[in-house]
Amino acid sequence: MTQVTMTVNGKSVSGDVEGRTLLSDFLRKTLRLTGTHIGCDTSQCGACVVHVNGRAVKSCTAFALELEGAEVRTIEGMANADGSLGTVQQAFQDHHGLQCGFCTPGMVMSAAALLADNPKPTEAEIREYLEGNICRCTGYHNIVKAVMAASGQDVAAVAAE
Amino acid sequence: MYSFEFARPGSIDEAVKALKAEEAQALGGGQTLIPTLKQRLAAPSVLVSLSGIAEMQGVCVSDDNALCVGGATPHAVVAKEAAKSFPALAGMASRIGDPAVRNRGTVGGSLANNDPSACYPAAALGTGATIKTNAREIAADDYFQGMFATALDEGEIITEVRFPIPEKANYQKFVQPASRFALVGVFVAKYASGVRVAVTGASEDGVFRWTEAEEALSKDFSAKAVEGLKVSADGMISDLHGPAAYRAHLVGVLTGRAVNAAA
Q1: Which of B147, B164, B181 is the last residue of a domain?
Q2: B104: nearest CB among A62, A68, A131
Q3: Which ipTM did the prediction report?
Q4: Which terminus has fewer CB within 10 Å in chain B: N or C?
Q5: Which residues does chain B have within 8 Å of residue A20's beta carbon, measured at their own beta carbons?
Q6: Which residues of A touch B8 (CB under 8 A)?
């Protein structure tokens, strides 16, 4: 076991991990931050997306020991300081961007990474950016609407198909 | 995943030393290797992460007009930083996998793995890139040696890749939508010395140069020049995503599109 230290949602945290411990396992098992979901565990579905130094990363496809000293943000770090939902989270609620909710942590983290880079994305840019996040309930339509709304754009323009 | 020791050296020298351990394995961005480890298809004793080596990061343009990319540079960084100096390469990098994969996956990892459907091998062969390792420089024409096979020796690390910047170039990728790898991908690059055409995703021997198209395009750089050319379906990959004849057909179509789009 080796000790790893990183900043998660603004707090310095450390824990003893094996070489093979994935970031997703470190977050869920060591830190008990179970908002990050493991869907496929094969790098396909994006449910486990978190931010590492501001960039979207699949936490099931990075080792904890690679992230010594990194700034990590998870879905638990997305709410406002007073505990109310953050902008992207609120937009998902308002626009019915989730049904079962399993993919939602990854969707919200990917959407937030997109908006940090591109504050007013087009519908096509949103759909392209979310290629690595799979949802089996919504058909994506309301997710795209939610991201449009979170960026302060008119959602009525989102194509019906 | 089988258990292994984890090393994260801070320099190329330290990494080379760490890789001398028996059954040691280098880890680039891990976007292929970590899933492989999970499936227990690899069992290294030591995994040597290259992500902490500052001298293997970054993109620049050399005096002899080549784009130099550090071996551990993620695709997303290449997509952003090469957008002006070499847009065809930046465009290729911006369409690998998905955004989260591009934030971790690296040029060195892609070339060392040499997946027969990966994009970077087409860019490296299509530009006649030089693959710099801790020990030597390898020309792309000598580097690719068949599916998942390269000229790299045990423990050799790709430290930098130098892509000569062409007058015009384009990469056309016909995406296999489930994996986002190339069902077929064609990189076309026009230099003063002639045109290079490299094809990925199609051949059972991995990435290859389509020399007939290169000769035709070197004489006349237009989609018309390759219209009548056909690639043989012999030795092409045939799987549930597309039979050999379909892939052979795509090579011609995508080459024409790449010429039309070259900039």
Answers
A1: B164
A2: A62
A3: 0.96
A4: C
A5: 1-4, 6, 37
A6: 65-66, 68
Instruction: Tell me what the mean pLDDT of segment B103-108 comes to.
Output: 98
pLDDT at B170 exceeding the cut of 90:
yes
pLDDT tens-digit profile of A57-113? Answer: 999 999 999 999 999 999 999 999 999 999 999 999 999 999 999 999 999 999 999
Say which DSSP state A102 is in.
S
Q: In the CATH scheme, what is the code of domain A87-157?
A: 1.10.150.120
Confidence at residue A158, expressed as pLDDT on a 0 to 100 scale: 80
pLDDT at A161: 54
Same domain, B193 and B94: no
Q: CA-nearest residue of chain B to A50?
A: B100
Q: B182: how many CB neighbours lie within 10 A of its CB?
A: 29
CATH label of the domain that carries residue B46:
3.30.465.10
| pTM across the whole model | 0.96
Q: What is the pLDDT of residue B178?
A: 85
Interchain CB distance below 8 Å, B3 and A22 = no
Chain A residues with CB inside 8 Å of B6's CB?
2, 18-20, 63, 65
The full DSSP string for A126-138 is HHHHGGG---SSS
> Closest approach of chain B CAs to the CA of A39, in angstroms?
14
B139 and B248 part of one domain: no
Q: B149 with B233, same domain?
A: no
Q: Which of B2, B3, B34 to mutate to test the interface with A (most CBs of A within 10 A)?
A: B34
Residues B236, B113, single domain; the answer is no
Neighbours of A93 (CB within 10 A): 12
CATH architecture of A2-77: Roll (3.10)
Residues B155 and B55 in one domain: yes
Q: Distance, in angstroms, between B51 CA and closest chain A CA?
A: 7
